[in-house]
Amino acid sequence: MASSQSTSPTIEYDAFLFDLDGTLLDTADDLGAALNTVLRSQQLDTVSREVYRAAASNGAAALLEVGFKDKWGEQPQAQLVKQLIDAYAANIAKHTTCFAGIEPLLIELERKNIKWGIMTNKPGFLTAPLVAAIPALKNACVVISGDTLAEAKPSPLPLLHCAKLMGVTPNRCLYIGDALRDIQAGKAAGMHTATALWGYVPNLTEVLSWQADFNWQSPIEGFNHI
Ligand SMILES: O=C(O)COP(=O)(O)O
C-alpha cells in the first residue's frame, strides 16, 4: 500500500484536526457489541468484527443496515436506531482505545504547542462521555460534534468553525479522517487532508479516488508535518 503520498512539499501545519471513530479511536468493538445486542433482541444472527468494522465510521443506521441486511427496509428504523444508541451509550468505552501511534502523535503536538482538535459526526451526547473516558484526548483545543452546528460532514462548516475557535487559518490546518466525507469536508474547508489507513477504510482503489493530500499508514507519519 502506498505510504504518505504527497502532492506538495512537506508542510508543517499550525493545527491538526482529527475525525474520531476510525481515526483517533478504535470504537468498532463497542459499536459492534451494541449492534449485536439489538440483533439478539430481534432473534437475528449477530455479525462478526469484520462486518461491523467496515460500517463503524458511518453512524447508527449504517451499522444496523449491515446487521439487518435485506430486512432493514421492513423495520421500525427510528426505534432500532434508538435501541442501538442506548446500548452503545451504556458501554461507550468498554473496549475503545486510541489506535497505535495516536498517543505519541498527540504528545508531540502538545510538546511543540501545536493546536489539535476533534471534529466528529457523532452526536454531542455520545462524543462528550467518550472523549472524557479517554485520558489521551483531554487536551483537545476543540471538540465539535455532528449536531453542534446545523450541518455535519461532508459540509465544511464544522471544520471552519474549529479553525475559527482555534484561531488558525484553514489552509494551515490538516484534517485526518478515514471516510470519504472527511476528505470531502476537509477539501471544501480549504484544509489539507490525510486519510487514516489504519481506520475503517474501504479498499485502496476507492481510498485513492478520494485524492487526499496524504494517505498515512500510521499516525506516526504526522511527525513529518510538525
Ligand atoms: O458516528 C458517526 O456518525 C461517525 O463518527 P466520525 O465522524 O467520528 O467517524
TrEMBL record:
Give the Gene Ontology MF terms in alphabetical order: metal ion binding; phosphoglycolate phosphatase activity
GO CC, any one term:
cytosol
Sorted alphabetically, the keyword list is: Carbohydrate metabolism, Hydrolase, Magnesium, Metal-binding
Record carries keyword Hydrolase: yes
Write down the Pfam families for this protein, in alphabetical order: HAD_2
Q: Name one GO biological process term.
A: DNA repair
Q: Where are the transmembrane segments?
A: none
InterPro entries in alphabetical order: HAD-like_hydrolase_sf, HAD-like_sf, HAD-SF_hydro_IA, HAD_2, HAD_sf, PGP-like_dom2
Q: What is this protein called?
A: Phosphoglycolate phosphatase
Q: What organism is listed for this UniProt entry?
A: Pseudoalteromonas nigrifaciens
